[in-house]
Amino acid sequence: MKITEQIWESVQTILQSKLDVSTFESWLKPIAFCDETTADKLIVLVPTKFMKDWVTREYNQVIKDAVLEVIGVVPAIEYRVKPFAVVKEETKSISSSHVVQTKIVEQAQPVHEVAKEEIRSQSQEITKKQQVKPDALLEHSNVLDPRYSFDNFIVGKSNEFSYAAARRIAESEDNTLYNPFFLHGGVGLGKTHLMHSIAHQITEAGSGKKVLYMSSEKFLSQFVQSMRTNDMIEFKERFRTVDVLMIDDVQFLAGKDGTQEEFFHTFNALVDMNKRIILTADKSPHELSGIEDRLRSRLGCGLTTEVHIPGMETRLAILQSKAKNMGIELSNDVAMLLADKISSNVRELEGALNRLIAHSQLTQQEITIDTVHQLLQDLFRNYNKIITLDEIQKKIAEFYNIKMADMHSARRSRDIARPRQIAMYLSKKLTSKSLPEIGRSFGGRDHTTVIHAVKAVDKLQAADPSIAEDLKILENLLSN
Ligand code: ADP
Ligand code: MG
């Protein structure tokens, strides 16, 4: 069977449903289909050599399983590294006390998310170099964002405790106070912002403390690289000579045994030497899965705080403050509309604001309620309402005049199977539920049934305008 790009997309859909978000986004999503694929060999392109090694070792089997699910056989799989384009090392110019070890390799499209972040960071590093006091021996493996300071952080009920703890830690000379500090919470709620704020304050105080901030992905990749080059001693020393170690998003370490082990030892060594450790994650240590128990309990043995979703008032204050920083006057009704519609993620709120500002600068028009609706329709749709699978099933059963029970039944006659497929399709489209979750809610069906339904409905609506019309109506009914 010839493997096509569509097949690879289905494979990715399955991978996405099987793996946790961070794993999928970091390692699997960047893998692209290569059109040199033949009937008996699937060829895919991986952004870097490092990723190729890692993916081949860690994910080859899940990829094979997913291919098997889609086409029923397992072909040979070849992983190829995408050709490189530019290699830049501008950070060399930074003063010698700053050990910058990140090498940035920019390559042909698409750039891996991590690489993009690095490239962005690099340019910030250049602008930042003036701001770092020479006596602060700041080692960057990933770069601090100068905008992420305590001054720019809006405090509200959702984050006041975390903010207060972060400030105390940044100001305290006593490293045993709240050590380790474990900050957790959902995506885009200010964890990284607070962590960078602490780093800025410590380094700017001129105490000469050596702060090492890195994402856990970077920790992971350096660990793997050191293993390969047999440089574990240097790796260990790097960490053990810092005063403050910050690792962002430690959930990435989950399930990586060797790295966890090394992290655990480094961690213990640092705590024993009374060094400060600051960590963030999307969940509390207690809830993190794929982390060894002894590491989990060590992670949580200092102070653990959570950043919650900010309330309306805090969201408004964040918007107004960001707009002010960008020199834009934001009318109250526009701010209210944004803060009302985009309620669960500050990063998205900020993204929406940036889009509006860019538009207004390009068109030289003020930001009005109308422009907001016009420009952010797609964003708002997701926020209008949280739609449940149950609601979708009910609405569609009602619409096609079938019994709700038939959404779950094994009956396969077309007048029932078709609405059921449409319900699965809309469940995928309008909710953030995973394929297996959707399958389960339709009478314990398999996720491949859902994939099949999604494809079938896609085809149907292309071929039959009345189905396309039904879908539009249903989508509207459900979203409003
Ligand atoms: P996380 O690390 O929790 O995913 P970030 O720290 O990256 O989130 O925050 C996402 C964006 O939202 C950043 O641009 C950050 O400046 C902004 N942000 C989040 N919370 C606040 C806040 N309380 N005040 C100001 N900006 C915030
Ligand atoms: Mg973050």
Describe this structure in words.
The chain has 480 residues and is an alpha/beta fold. 54% of the residues lie in helices and 11% in strands. The strands form 3 sheets. The protein has a 6-stranded parallel sheet, sandwiched between helices. Strands 1-2-3 form a 3-stranded mixed sheet, covered by helices on one side. Strand 9, helix 9 and strand 10 form a beta-alpha-beta unit. The longest helix has 23 residues, at 49-71. The two termini are 44 Å apart. Adenosine-5'-diphosphate is lined by residues 148, 152-154, 159, 185, 187-193, 318, 346-347, 350.
List keywords for this structure.
three-stranded mixed beta sheet; 11 strands; 54% helix; six-stranded parallel beta sheet; binds magnesium ion; globular; 19 helices; alpha/beta; 480 residues; binds adenosine-5'-diphosphate
Question: Mean of the pLDDT scores?
Answer: 82
The helix-and-strand class reads alpha/beta
Ligand inventory reads: adenosine-5'-diphosphate, magnesium ion
Radius of gyration from the CA trace? 25 Å
Distance between the termini: 44 Å
Order of strands across the biggest sheet? 6-8-9-10-7-11
Helicity level = 40-55%
Largest sheet: 6 strands, parallel
- The number of helical runs is 19
Q: Which stretches are poorly predicted, pLDDT < 50 over at least 5 residues?
A: 84-142
Rough outline: globular
Give the SSE string: HHEEHEEEHEHEHEHHEHEHEHHHHHHHHH
Q: What is the number of strand segments?
A: 11
Strand content: 5-15%
